[in-house]
Amino acid sequence: MIIFRYIAIQVLIGLIIATAVLLPLFSFFDLLDQLDDVGKGTYRTIDAFMYTTMLLPRRFIQIAPFIALLGTVAALGALAVNSELIAMRTAGISPVQISLAPLAVGIALIVFIAGLEQFVAPQLQQKAISNRAAALNQTAELGRGLGIWTRNEQNILRIGQMLHAKRAADIEILHLDNTGFLSAHIHAQSADIRNNDAWILRQVIVRKFTEKGILLTRAEALSWRSFLNPEDIATLTKPPESLSPFELVRHVDFLRSTGQDADSYALALWRKAGSALLTIAMLMLSILFIFGSIRSGLANKLVFSALIGVAVYLLDQIIANAGLLLRLDPAFVALAPSIVLILLAIFLLRRVF
């Protein structure tokens, strides 16, 4: 249908314009934040620019719902200002038919974002974090002196520092017996991580706790079969939001199978799904803004939609953090705001149409 394609093209142009406005703005804030670290270690201005550039796909994904809102309002608002929507209505095209074009563009946008989320954004974000940490002489774990902590049924593992993907430093292993009591403590200066999950511990001190006392032994090297593979270790050192959906699913399953808290990773996973729903909600609200106030100027619509977008963004962040603090169900916390907005938009659109 010619009119369907025409509206879809106008909406797509609106999304491109909104991206060209919002993405550089958010990236500028990222750059300002990075410039504060220039001069520390070997971190230079060019590193700050590279870090910001590599975060562009992640920032685009984060602001995509609000790009959809502003872009669609701008596109349909321009059609309304030029009386094109009135002409379409006069020709017998219903508001529902007009709304199908932006919704189709929105679905295409969600598919594009899904591809970025799985294959582009995580890899670039993780590379940016790694490069920045190396330049600042930092590690990506919980903090210097705290290290990375994880466990399974009978072992608690602390990695003080990941030197690189195949080598770690300051390793502690606490082995528990079948009754849950500490039976052995192993400390190693470093560890070489092999692909078959076998670690070669270097400069090792082993303390075994027996009924007769503590038995201490030392060794230059000791083989230890880890319950972590290199991919699991890499995942532990990455922020939850930087992981792809497949990585999050696997890591949440690993944490839960070993009795660990997986809420932050589960929330990050469900928020990726919630972002798609939020994009649909923003598209529906943008349609409501146009048909619900067709007499108001385009500038007023853009300002009002921008305020709505900011309010929704802040509310979504507050709900996510509050849900994590209160230990609410991650799926509910991530999906409920978007579902409420969609239901509200459907209710209001039915009144308008």
UniProtKB/TrEMBL annotation:
Q: Name one Pfam family in it.
A: LptF_LptG
Q: Which topology term describes how it sits in the membrane?
A: Multi-pass membrane protein
Which biological processes are named by the entry's GO terms?
lipopolysaccharide transport; transmembrane transport
The record's InterPro entries line, in alphabetical order, gives: LptG, LptG/LptF_permease
What subcellular locations does the record give?
Cell membrane
Major localisation: membrane
For this UniProt record, give its keywords in alphabetical order, as a comma-separated list: Cell membrane, Membrane, Transmembrane, Transmembrane helix
Give the transmembrane ranges. 7-29, 60-81, 93-116, 273-291, 303-325, 331-349
Q: Name one GO cellular component term.
A: ATP-binding cassette (ABC) transporter complex
Q: Which domain of life is it from?
A: Bacteria
Q: What PANTHER family does this protein map onto?
A: LIPOPOLYSACCHARIDE EXPORT SYSTEM PERMEASE PROTEIN LPTG, SLR0882 PROTEIN-RELATED
Listed name of the protein: Lipopolysaccharide export system permease protein
Species of the source: Nitrosomonas aestuarii
